[in-house]
Amino acid sequence: MRRRDWFSMTSGAGLAFLGEVLRQRPARAREVLTGPSAGFGRAKSVLVVVASGGQSQLETFDPRPEAPLEVRGQFGAIETTVPGTFLCEHLPRLAKLAHRYAIVKSMSHDDLDHGSALYLTLTGQYHQRLSSNPPPRETDHPFFGSVLEQTRPASKFLRTSVLINGPALVPFEPGPGQFAGLLGRRFDSLVIGDVTTGQPAVPGLERLDNVDAKRHALRQQLLHELEQNRLPAAQPTIDMQTLYQQAYEMLDRPTARQALDLEAEPQSIRDRYGRHRSGQACLLARRLVEAEVPLVTVMWNHSNRGQDKYPDDVEQFGWDTHNDIFDVMGGSLLPRFDQSFSALLEDLDQRGLLETTLVVCMGEFGRAPVVALESKFAGASPGRKHWAAAYSIVLAGAGVRGGSTIGATDRHAAYPISTKYGPWDVTATIFHALGIDPAGHFFDSLNRPYPISSGQPITGLW
Predict the structure, then answer these.
(1) Higher pLDDT, 417 or 206
(2) What are the CA-CA distances from residue 12 to residues 6, 17, 20, 81 (Å)?
(3) How high is the pLDDT of residue 445?
(4) Domains defined for the chain, CATH in brackets
(5) Residue 33 parent element (H or E)
(6) DSSP at 328
(7) Are the CB atoms for 287 and 263 separated by under 8 Å?
(8) How far apart are CA 69 and CA 227, in angstroms?
């Protein structure tokens, strides 16, 4: 607000007008003014696991053992530590931890393709091209990690938002929604790829033996002088300068390098998470939470459907199981997910980190409540189509009531029969847990305001 506007508002007439505006604000806004609601500010960090491809609710957290075979599928359901809550039979470890997390079963939206639905999941906003696979654009709505980077930048680790095992491929090209978009490259998350290659998670962070601190500073000064003497910089040059600066800052922070070193972990811990991309990505995420990174996002699988192109490489498999759903999920996806996600929850809890870390596990939608063979896709046995009308997500930590279930679906897990929630509400919940009012705003390069979230926090979780 400019000074002239402020003096105008604080005059007698201005104060009367302001009072009337506040009286007419919705109840939710008044609640924010009078005090924080449940869960507000309970998280120091948020750790998001994205099951890209559309994780089936019927084969995970909302099984229907009483439904006809063509609905329930081949897998059975097992009891959990929470009476009345059942999981798929291939999630025995998570069944033993059901008292530590909450399940939201009435997630729902209207987008039915991976690219735009992933965009919706990671931004909380529908893409202009609904149910499509668009490429990333500079005008995209920013990833919620980029919004956090602007609204509350970190100080200890340097980067506010880190994305692991990314970028997410849909299925072989990066999908939209995981970048800063209209905020500019400066607010992109730090993206870390495959952490199982044996190479450093972020190459180049070790100082060279023959370059001491003084010589390092001189090199940085020389680069700065060369850049200053250029002609007026184009946007790609400005973006490169930003990356240079971020790299130098990370070089000056040994704690950042230590947090990224998976070799420092005991072999037993690495084995517990699983010696595969998904498991080691979850382990690195826990290390970054320990380093007090505010937001860590794990792409549990880097491709939503890599099995079409690489049918013999389990590391490429995603949750987009149009065909062969029971072979793919029972043989690799579910056992690995059960191992890695349960290890993450147990490890955070044992280290005292779960109390201050909100964990969110979600996909971009669910799967259809009918098993059928699709001729347009690879595979010889039936699977399930995309389904956004109802799907499940899981949240834990930061005071979330473990063992609770939010929302419900009908007898085929096809449609919600209670309050619906959307990705916009998950985005609002993330900011709410971090102590940031989701009704607030961030600003683009022209200082135009955008709402942090268009949703409402799911306060029933607390």
Answers:
(1) 417
(2) 12, 9, 13, 61
(3) 87
(4) 1-35 (no CATH), 40-199+260-461 (3.40.720.10), 203-256 (no CATH)
(5) helix 27-34
(6) H
(7) no
(8) 66
